[in-house]
């Protein structure tokens, strides 16, 4: 292979490697019918939302897969995105009230996605605290995870990994808001 051909091969190889490297914001999570129905059946009181923070040592702003980065929208953090996901679900159910004496806050404790060109995994965890009149009445860690068959081709695997990670937010919110212990604490039990 001549010098010019080697040069073009290097340029083409670099271009192909970079083609998979993207940075994109996480998708907004719409309210889910399952969570809406569960909230209506549970007849929980209205909730306000407190702060959602990130545990020490956890990257608050990026998930990396094969050199591509998923980041929260508008320069916020994944913890703030979790809070917004709670707000979306509560608002859809008519249960979001910023002036309610009952407030939910959280600390994001786990946020990860990995894949090895054959299998992908993602996990999301948070410790959620319910306060009444500013005093904590309930606190519990919640965790959700998923796995999927990953593709060798990055253009397929990267969006799939991000989509699977993104879907964990709705799952975590549903798990917490339908937890019998959380519901009992909301009702004052």
Layout of SSEs?
Blueprint: H1 3-19, E1 23-25, H2 33-42, E2 48-54, E3 63-65, E4 68-71, H3 78-92, E5 102-115, E6 119-132, E7 135-149, H4 154-177, H5 180-186
Parallel strand pairs: 1-4, 2-5
Antiparallel strand pairs: 3-4, 5-6, 6-7
Name the strands of the widest sheet in spatial order.
2-5-6-7
Task: Please work out how many helical segments DSSP would assign.
Answer: 5
CATH architecture type: 3-Layer(aba) Sandwich
Number of strands: 7
Average pLDDT confidence is 86
Largest sheet: 4 strands, mixed
Shape: elongated
Helix content: 25-40%
Output the CATH topology.
Rossmann fold
As a percent range, the share of strand residues is: 25-35%
Structural class: alpha/beta
Order of helices and strands: HEHEEEHEEEHH
From the N-terminal CA to the C-terminal CA, the straight-line distance is 77 Å
The number of distinct structural domains comes to: 1
Poorly predicted tracts of residues: 7-19
Instruction: Using the CA coordinates, give the radius of gyration.
Output: 20 Å
| CATH homology superfamily name | ABC-type transport auxiliary lipoprotein component
Text of the CATH class: Alpha Beta
Descriptive notes:
Helix content is 39%, strand content 32%. By secondary structure, the chain is α/β, with parallel strands linked by helices. The protein has one domain (23-186): 3-Layer(aba) Sandwich (Rossmann fold), CATH 3.40.50.10610. The chain has a four-stranded mixed beta sheet. A hairpin with a 3-residue loop joins strand 5 and strand 6 (119-132).
